[in-house]
Structure formats: C-alpha cells, structure tokens
Specification:
It contains no helices and 14 strands. It has about 200 residues and is mostly beta strands. It is elongated.
C-alpha cells in the first residue's frame, strides 16, 4: 500500500579517549514506520521511530592496564587488565502525529506533535505548525515541553521560522530561517540554503 512507509538506518559508533588510551566501538540501529490516511482521514498521519537500538558498548585499550605485584614475592610486577563497565546506548522511541488541512486552492496548514520517551533522560513533547502558501512561502511555529525535567536540565522552548522555495531553471532553491529560544544562553538563529537538482 502507498499509505505505509518504513525505513532503517545502521549507525557505526566509535569513541576514542586519547588521553586515557581507551576506545569503544559498537553498532546501533534506527527503525521507523509511517502510516498516512489514519482512520481513513485524508491528511492525518502517524509515525513511530525507535533510535539507537543496539548492544551495550565497552571501553578497552592500553590505558586500562595497571602494574600489579605480590608483596614479598621474588618476581617483578605484571600488567593487570581493568575491565570497564558496559554502557547501554541512549535509545529512545518517538511517537508522532500530524494533520494537514487544506486552505483554499493554494494554501495548507500542517499541525504536528511528537512525544519522545528517553531511557536516560526526561521525556518531552514537541508541538508545531506550518503554513504553506502555494509551495512558495512557509511560516512555522513550535514549542517544546518537558514537564518531568529539572528546571535547569531542559533549556529549549519556543521556536519560529520562515522559508521561501523557488524553482529556477530546473534547480529548486530554498532559503530557510529559524529562531529557537534557549535558557541561560543567547537564543539560536539558524539560516539554511538548499539546492535541489
């Protein structure tokens, strides 16, 4: 059916602690599925993704070797290997829901929401909307909530943005701007230019 899309990503993980002479390697998988036309309603879509799913990683290397010896023994010391603890990957699951509402013949409004369940962090939700005029001009707003997070642990909130898309000689040119409020720091201003061939 053309209502269902799914995909997967394989991530190779490598982390090196140069000063400690230790490294860890691993693999993680992302899985996602999207269903369009939920409950036979045009424009209503639902998606589920699972990210960073994989075995725990463990550091190893010469930095974990220590000299050891036995008191009173007539022999020199020998290296002892320290076994590092295995660390689980920070996996999480995201549930998403969106609804696209046509406005006249040239405009549309898309309302979106996601809920992210983290295994090592506080859960949070995102809510947003995008107004599209004739696939030429876009205006966007959003907000993030994390009710279970500590006051100083989650620093994001309101977002807003706008974009322009124009096709010029078989080349799609898109210019986007986004603003994101951040606690304790200056707010983020992001500019993006995309070329599509």
């Amino acid at each position: 059916t053309d209502r269902i899309s799914f995909g997967t990503t394989v991530n190779l993980i490598s982390e090196d602690l140069q000063t400690a002479r230790a490294s860890a390697k691993g693999v993680a998988f992302d899985f996602g599925v999207q269903y369009r036309g939920l409950a036979s309603i045009d424009g209503l879509s639902m998606a589920v993704t699972i990210k960073n799913l994989g075995p725990a990683i463990q550091f190893s290397g010469s930095g974990l070797l220590r000299d050891s010896g036995i008191d009173g023994a007539d022999r020199g010391s020998s290296p002892l290997q320290i076994q590092a603890q295995q660390d689980e990957l920070p996996s999480y699951i995201v549930l998403g829901l969106s609804y696209a509402v046509p406005i006249g013949e040239t405009s549309s409004l898309e309302l979106t929401s996601t809920f992210q369940d983290n295994n090592y962090d506080a859960d949070y939700g995102n809510f947003g909307g995008e107004y599209n005029y004739d696939d030429l001009f876009f205006a966007r707003v959003g907000y993030t909530v994390a009710p279970d997070a500590a006051d100083d642990a989650f620093i994001y909130g309101f977002t807003a943005g706008a974009g322009i898309h124009y096709d010029f000689s078989n080349i799609g040119i898109t210019v986007d701007y986004a603003y994101r409020s951040v606690d304790f720091f200056d707010s983020s201003n992001i500019f993006q230019i995309k070329l599509g061939f």
